[in-house]
């Protein structure tokens, strides 16, 4: 079967995950500088990672077969510059957020202890009984377990999300190409029938 658009795997390859892990912190810092706030950096850098994911097969080919080890970094800078030009702060719509705190319960389910005799007109002071400390064997053993090497879960998650967005865009392009071919074929059939009749 002839493939017009090469197949893209649904899971990110290890090379892409390692690439994201190497560049994620610097990319977040640069995005925060452009956006203006560290908390808003995620409005810019995931799109850049998605751009890199969509070109990853070509970038990996340049790196491994054509001896261009900096191809991924070069494209990352280009994609970041392109996204920075498109990004405009006025696209952000301010949202008013109101936080409501729950009212404290009127009565407590904890047993209370009274101090002193009840005197008419006196204020009664009550103290809550101490809550028993719950523990498990796992919590007691946790201090004795040597942790293994730390996995950069954030980099893996960011790589997976960006790869999924690129995968979905790839699927949409394949679907549009198939619809275009079917439409062109139908138009050709209609034209041949009109010309032959």
SS-based structural class?
A: mainly alpha
Cα Rg: 30 Å
Order of helices and strands: HHHHEEHH
List the quaternary state of the chains. single chain
Low-confidence stretches: 1-5
Indicate the mean pLDDT. Answer: 75
Number of strands: 2
How much β-strand is present in the residues? under 5%
Describe the strand arrangement of the main beta sheet, using strand numbers. 1-2
Helix content range:
40-55%
Tertiary shape: extended
* End-to-end distance: 33 Å
Tally of helical runs = 6
Largest sheet: 2 strands, antiparallel
Summarize the structure.
With 197 residues, the chain is mainly alpha-helical. It is built from 6 helices and 2 strands, in the order ααααββαα.
Note down, in words, how this protein is organized.
With 197 residues, the chain is mainly alpha-helical. The chain has a domain at 14-88 and 155-170. Helix content is 54%, strand content 4%. The chain has 6 helices and 2 strands. The chain has helices at residues 14-35, 45-54, 56-64, 71-86, 137-142, 153-196, and strands spanning 112-115, 125-128. The protein has a two-stranded antiparallel sheet. α1 packs across α6, α2 (45-54) packs across α4 and α2 (45-54) crosses α6 (153-196). It starts with 13 loop residues before the first helix and ends with a helix.
């Amino acid at each position: 079967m002839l493939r017009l658009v090469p197949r893209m795997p649904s899971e990110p390859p290890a090379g892409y995950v390692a690439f994201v892990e190497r560049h994620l912190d610097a990319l977040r810092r640069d995005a925060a500088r452009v956006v203006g706030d560290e908390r808003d950096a995620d409005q810019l850098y995931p799109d850049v990672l998605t751009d890199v994911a969509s070109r990853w097969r070509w970038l990996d080919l340049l790196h491994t077969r054509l001896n261009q080890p900096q191809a991924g970094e070069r494209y990352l800078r280009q994609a970041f510059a392109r996204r920075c030009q498109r990004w405009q702060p006025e696209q952000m719509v301010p949202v008013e957020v109101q936080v409501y705190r729950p009212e404290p319960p009127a009565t407590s389910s904890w047993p209370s202890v009274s101090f002193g005799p009840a005197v008419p007109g006196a204020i009664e002071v009550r103290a809550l009984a101490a809550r028993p400390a719950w523990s498990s064997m796992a919590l007691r053993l946790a201090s004795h377990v040597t942790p293994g090497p730390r996995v950069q879960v954030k980099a893996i998650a960011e790589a997976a999300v960006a790869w999924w967005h690129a995968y979905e865009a790839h699927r949409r392009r394949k679907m549009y190409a198939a619809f275009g071919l079917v439409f062109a074929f139908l138009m050709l059939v209609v034209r041949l029938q009109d010309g032959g009749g």
